[in-house]
């Protein structure tokens, strides 16, 4: 009986410890390193690629899938996900206040307790405001002196300056806004998964709602007829390279993880199969299914949620 109780206690303790470790948050994170050596390796692999699968497949979706499979295959080889430990944020130690400032704080508290029920024009109330302003100035001066002393005593002044800036940013913190939506029935949706599905269903049905709206509107009869014909010439690898190089070199990426900055490095190497896929897309009238997936992150800016 005692052994059974001990075993039950150990199991509960193990569950509690596991829950405690789970609540503490992730201790590791995964990231990719886009070093010049890795980029050169990626370019080397792409330069040796013949894109045989892209040109040999019959269906357009198969052609584009083969192109993306080759790109992502070399991408995973050259830029693997590296798991590393997350550094703990250092504790922000507030500077200690001097004895005169502490005495001034006690004096402000005493004046507040005596004048909180008085009129704003009362002399004791005015004295409280003056003491409060003097206390704020003394605290600000004490903090600035502590920061300057820390910077002056450090060997690497630029590093210490950035440490102070980061400490102030962490002290202010970042507001976490929970996205809430209200549906047509007036119900509030606060579940993140349901909010994402609501956004997805809304934006995915824009084309259908627009088509329905266009069908209900009477056509405009007084329109000028265009006698000229619209021609679409096939694209060339040179044109594709120009479009890729016109992209802003950003490190943000989509679902595939490939950024526009990385595409600019390999524009010459993927321009030939990419121009071929674009021309086939116009010929068969199909758009790649893989490019219809996007990452949507609603961010609250300001105002009422």
SSE blueprint and pairings:
Blueprint: H1 2-23, E1 28-31, H2 36-47, H3 52-56, H4 60-78, E2 82-85, H5 99-115, H6 123-153, H7 157-172, E3 181-182, E4 188-189, H8 192-204, H9 206-216, H10 237-245, H11 260-265, H12 267-284
Antiparallel strand pairs: 1-2, 3-4
Morphology: elongated
Strand order of the largest sheet: 1-2
Count of helical stretches: 12
> What structural class should be given to the helix and strand makeup?
mainly alpha
Tell me the strand percentage band: under 5%
Calculate Rg over CA atoms. Answer: 32 Å
Mean pLDDT: 79
Distance between the termini: 57 Å
Would you mind describing this structure in some detail?
The longest helix is centred in the middle third of the chain and has 31 residues. 59% of the residues lie in helices and 4% in strands. It is mainly alpha-helical. Among the domains are: 101 residues, no CATH class; 70 residues, no CATH class; 32 residues. The strands form 2 sheets. Strands 1-2 form a two-stranded antiparallel sheet. The protein has 12 helices and 4 strands, in the order H-E-H-H-H-E-H-H-H-E-E-H-H-H-H-H. Strand 3 and strand 4 form a beta hairpin. The N terminus is likely disordered. This is Reverse transcriptase domain-containing protein. It comes from Graphocephala atropunctata.
Descriptive terms for the model:
two-stranded antiparallel ribbon; mainly alpha; disordered N terminus; elongated; 59% helix; 305 residues
Quick recap:
The chain is mainly α and 305 residues long.
